[in-house]
Amino acid sequence: MRPPPSFASGTSPRAPAWVDPIVRNQLGDLISLRMAAPPDTAGIDRVWELSIRDARGRDEPALLEQEFDGVRLRMWSLPGDELIYDFVQEISRAKVELVGVDHSKACSWVAARQAPGGLERGPMTPRERFVCDPRRPWLWVGATVLADLALQPRRCIWQHPAGPDPVRVTFTDVPLGDHLLIHGGIDYQAERRRVHAPVTLRVWINDQMAAELVHEDGDGWSGLEIDTSELPREPAIVRFETTADDPSSRLFCWSASSVRSRLPGGGRDE
Is 38 helix (H, G, I), strand (E, B) or coil? Predict the structure, then answer.
């Protein structure tokens, strides 16, 4: 297990960060949700840059460069990993449980009222989600978009811990490649205060604990990489458990991707 490769989603000093949501607003019909709020670089084959006034976000020569009425278009090839399973995309197929000392309670996949999220309200609550306890409206599991500590959008699975007893999400028939990329973070409004308990995310593969991510306030969108290249090729059972000694304001969201390396010598043979 090793730290995952980092990737930057910001812009150069002459291309300020506030440009990013404007571009997504104008090109939204051409950008998937995963691309608009990337949890990692898996499945991203190209990087495109639109710039004016000679602003540049990358120094290396582009494979394609053209100019249209003062707007420069540049493109680079990104030799990233091949995405073979996106856990966020498949969340509706999972099994979700509240695990207790004596028994586990299944959470139901329902179509319920949406909540828009926003300032002091955290990420949007999706219409379709797993509801674990109606008395605790924050105790649900589903896909949303988190604003991380750097105010970058991250497409992820909301899995707010309930306390020391785990909230468990289990996926079956998961195709394993060379690595599992795991990332997690807490909504910036809760994390920036840096006064709350850490959240622990444990990852199990076929009933064997494969990794543990302990997220503390200030970590931002952090992650790890699990080597799965030596595991059997058969589809696996992968589960994710979140816990926190004190679940107050632990607006935790995570993503995971099963990937196959495209680089020579980067993984097992086909």
Answer: coil
Residues 171 and 60 in one domain: no
User: How many domains in the chain?
Assistant: 2
Residues pairing with 99 in the sheet: 104
> How many Å apart are CA 14 and CA 200, to the nearest integer?
38
Instruction: Give the span between the Cα atoms of 89 and 87, in whole angstroms.
Output: 5
Residue 73 and residue 152 in one domain: no
pLDDT in tens, the chain (270 residues): 444 443 333 333 345 666 677 777 777 677 777 777 777 777 777 888 878 888 877 888 888 999 988 888 998 887 778 899 999 999 999 999 999 878 899 999 999 888 877 776 788 899 999 999 989 999 999 999 999 999 888 999 999 999 999 999 999 999 999 999 999 999 999 999 899 999 999 999 999 999 999 999 999 999 999 999 999 989 999 999 999 999 999 999 999 999 998 765 544 443
Query: Quick one: which of 102, 100, 131 has its CA closest to 114?
Result: 131
The range of the structural domain enclosing residue 52 comes to 19-31+45-79
Residues 72 and 91 placed together within one structural domain of the fold: no
Q: pTM for the complete prediction?
A: 0.82
List CB contacts of 240: < 8 A, sequence separation 6 or more. Answer: 157, 159, 168, 169, 201, 202, 203, 204, 254, 256
Instruction: Please enumerate in sequence order all residues whose Cβ is within 8 A of that of 28, keeping only pairs 6 or more positions apart, or say none.
Output: 36
Is residue 174 domain-shared with residue 250, that is, in the same domain?
yes
